[in-house]
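Suppose you are handed only two things: the residues of a chain and a line of SMILES describing LARABZUK. What would the bound structure be? This form records exactly that question and the answer produced for it, so the two can be stored side by side and reused later without any lookup.

QUESTION INPUTS
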Amino acid sequence: MSAEVKVKICGLTQLADIPAAVSAGAAYVGFVFFPKSPRNIELDRARDMATLVPEGIAKVALTVDADNAMLDMLTDSVPLDMLQLHGHETPERVTEIKKRYGLPVMKAVGVATAEDLPQLDTYARVADQLLVDAKPPKGADRPGGNALAFDWKLIAGRRWPVPWMLAGGLTPENVAQAIQLTGARQIDVSSGVESEPGVKDAKMIRAFIKAAKCS
Ligand SMILES: O=C(O)c1ccccc1NCC(=O)[C@H](O)[C@H](O)COP(=O)(O)O
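ANSWER OUTPUT
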């Protein structure tokens, strides 16, 4: 029997989001540090939220092309288990960040067409995990969290030598089909469990995780 699907709830903004995600069975919680995002939070808020997360649930900080000064501040202020790199970080930069901070790194790769897939192989050589996300639409002001799905058939049957998460436009209604089609054992969601951008909904989080784990 295969292990239960693990779910990451990304972009938590309120203290109450932590017990909502934890009691629903999340395996990862994600904090966004990107000022243009409606989910962006300050370091103090992130630290207060992170201290509420029980042992065994991974606290992930998401940054976009962050420099060392930003990452130094972040890792000094917030207890973290993983860094998620969601910008144009090169494989060399991924390696440098892993070494400098001693934390596992998950590299996000945006997928829209088959031409985007070789990037996943490239980053699988340096990152600890991959986040297989939808490529942002042209003109989007953020590289993720856009409630946009890609064609899951593009990665049906594909596997990488490191653990990976499926992301992009997932909802309580479509997550079971996405898992069935792609074979993903880890799932990431943000917009699909929100009542409005940046506002997580405890009921939607429960419904999402239940649907993911039942599939
Ligand atoms: O969520 C954001 O606002 C965000 C901003 C900047 C970079 C990345 C961002 N989100 C990345 C995530 O991990 C999301 O959970 C992932 O893209 C899926 O988002 P959604 O389609 O909204 O479920």
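WHAT STANDS OUT: Strands lie at 6-10, 28-33, 58-63, 82-85, 105-111, 129-134, 164-166, 186-189, 194-196, 199-200. The pocket of LARABZUK is lined by residues 10-11, 30, 32, 34, 37, 39, 62, 64, 86, 133, 142-148, 167-170, 188-192 (CB under 6 Å).
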